[in-house]
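Propose amino acids for all 579 sites.
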């Protein structure tokens, strides 16, 4: 009888404003008290979903001597209140903690955890400053929703947000104040739109989604209205609260997760300005995964066309053990072991590494873009060289918003539209709107462990435009495997300067952090284009961008990439130094 797991379903926990949130409690046999783990989830509270899909099976936590509180957030499922993402999680999380601390079965020690949206809730909870909250584990999430959730480099994450808005709409149908016939029609419209997402995501203007109106998913239009970082986003930026976060955080993410940048931003912020003991005990684990790898009842180490083997498996089999070990260390204080630093999978070499700080000892290496005039775009004969070129002509290509350069894999989360991860980029590189620059065949390994950036000298014939960059590993068999990518929008980069067609500007594109080894026999390649669609909204090459009503308003732009002694366009790799 001592091993029985007790599950109390359907507590309705009151928030400060009187709204009641449905809450389940898992706990061992007896009266306690026990250390308690809090998980605030947007999705289902069903036992199957909670125990077999998300990052921790609460039954296993109970077997380790924890009580587990699982609360459905405001406006979702059976919880009362109005759903609006991000804005209520801080105050509601604080009310949840106060309720837990009032329960006789809680011993006053709390940990919190979550994946994706529930991980945002967990971070908001630890940012409330409760001394009783001793630890946190987050997986595949974001601490600043503007940057790397709704927008990235101030460009709208179109594919992800259209998908997410429609899925949130499906969850909201049952709460609509309308007739049964209207509710049925809305459900039918949303369901069909999700099936048709590859076409739906191409709509212009990007606000043209009538299925999301009338209260179905009002946040989508708000995200578009707040296209620049303002008070709307500032109020939910958890990174600003880092100085008051003292609970040690375990952060888990994959190299091809669409939220990768957010985890490194969190790592850098906490380890620089976070409160103790969190600042000195932040732990990050980075595996070779994409986002959907975690939400899987089966362990998987596949990532697109690559498979990294059992040692790199993801899913609940990995995350559950990591969460419980972390809670044992900080909530129960069973050991005093130092567990900070970064554990990361070095792709290419395919093994785990452990370092005290990120990036490990390294130097910045420049690979300069070079080509005969026009060769990079017209024949994909551009080169990457370790020495800066002398005088050269620019590479020129045409970017047509009616036929934007397509997304093929990468750090995306676009179910029903496209799969994430590593895929052969050959079909993209054959397009005339892509300029490729490739290194000689490598005779020694190039071990990249840290930030990747691209500095380009560019011009356009249009009033506004985008430039994109993609880092690729060209394998001996010819497969061009994508590793990292980024984007820059001229009107966002130079907001106070009207772009005069033909003006040459220097832009820096952030391709995020990377752990990958280019092996001997491989080549390093950089792709330069002006779209990554539908991951990002396409630029129509006009001042108001995609806000214009029709593709008929778009213009084709002539793009130029300069690479000479005075304008050295270059790829910047953080390369590990080894004794």
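Proposal:
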């Amino acid at each position: 009888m001592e091993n029985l797991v007790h599950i109390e379903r359907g507590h309705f926990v009151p928030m400060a404003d009187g709204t009641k949130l449905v809450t389940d409690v898992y706990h061992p046999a007896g009266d306690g008290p026990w250390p308690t783990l809090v998980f605030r989830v947007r999705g289902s509270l069903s036992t199957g979903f909670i125990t077999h899909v998300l990052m921790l099976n609460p039954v296993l936590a109970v077997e380790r001597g924890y009580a587990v509180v699982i609360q459905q957030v405001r406006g979702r499922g059976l919880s009362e209140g109005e759903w609006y993402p991000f804005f209520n999680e801080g105050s509601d999380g604080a009310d949840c903690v106060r309720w837990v601390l009032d329960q006789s079965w809680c011993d006053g020690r709390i940990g919190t955890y979550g994946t994706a949206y529930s991980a945002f809730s967990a971070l908001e909870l630890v940012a409330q400053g409760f001394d009783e909250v001793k630890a946190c584990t987050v997986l595949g999430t974001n601490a600043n929703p503007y940057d790397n959730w709704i927008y990235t480099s101030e460009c709208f994450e179109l594919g992800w947000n259209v998908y997410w808005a429609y899925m949130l709409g499906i969850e909201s149908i049952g709460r609509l104040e309308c007739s049964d016939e209207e509710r049925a029609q809305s459900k039918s419209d949303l369901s069909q739109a999700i099936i048709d997402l590859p076409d739906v995501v191409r709509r212009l203007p990007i606000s043209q989604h009538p299925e999301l109106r009338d209260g179905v998913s009002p946040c989508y239009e708000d995200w578009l209205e707040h296209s620049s970082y303002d008070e709307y986003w500032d109020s939910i930026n958890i990174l600003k609260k880092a100085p008051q976060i003292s609970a040690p955080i375990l952060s888990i993410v994959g190299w091809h997760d669409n939220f990768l940048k957010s985890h490194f931003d969190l790592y850098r912020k906490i380890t620089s300005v976070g409160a103790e003991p969190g600042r000195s005990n932040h732990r990050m684990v980075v595996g070779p995964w994409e986002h959907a790898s975690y939400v899987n009842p089966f362990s998987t180490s596949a990532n697109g066309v690559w498979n990294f083997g059992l040692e790199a498996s993801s899913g609940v089999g990995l995350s559950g053990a990591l969460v419980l070990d972390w809670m044992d260390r900080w909530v129960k204080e069973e050991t005093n072991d130092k567990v900070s630093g970064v554990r990361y999978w070095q792709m290419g070499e395919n093994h785990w590494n452990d370092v005290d700080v990120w990036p490990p000892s390294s130097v910045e290496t420049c690979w300069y873009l070079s080509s005969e005039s026009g060769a990079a775009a017209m024949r994909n004969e551009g080169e990457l060289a370790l020495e800066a070129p002398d005088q050269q002509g620019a590479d020129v290509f045409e970017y047509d918003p009616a036929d934007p350069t397509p997304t093929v894999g990468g750090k995306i989360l676009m179910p029903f539209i496209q799969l994430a991860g590593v895929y052969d980029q050959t079909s993209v590189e054959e397009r005339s709107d892509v300029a490729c620059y490739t290194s000689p065949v490598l005779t020694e390994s190039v071990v990249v462990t840290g930030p990747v950036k691209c500095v380009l000298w560019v011009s356009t014939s249009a009033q506004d435009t985008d430039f994109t960059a993609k880092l690729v590993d060209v394998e001996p068999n010819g497969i061009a495997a994508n590793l990292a990518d980024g984007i820059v929008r001229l009107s966002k980069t130079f907001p106070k300067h009207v772009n005069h067609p033909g003006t040459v500007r220097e832009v820096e594109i952030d391709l995020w952090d990377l752990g990958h080894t280019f092996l001997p026999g491989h080549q390093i390649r950089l792709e330069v284009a002006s779209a990554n669609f539908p991951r990002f909204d396409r630029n129509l090459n006009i001042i108001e961008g995609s806000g214009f009503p029709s593709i008929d308003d778009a213009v084709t732009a002539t793009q130029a990439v300069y690479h000479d002694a005075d304008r050295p366009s270059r790829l910047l790799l953080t390369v590990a130094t080894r004794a």
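The mean pLDDT is 93. The first strand starts at residue 5 and ends at 14.
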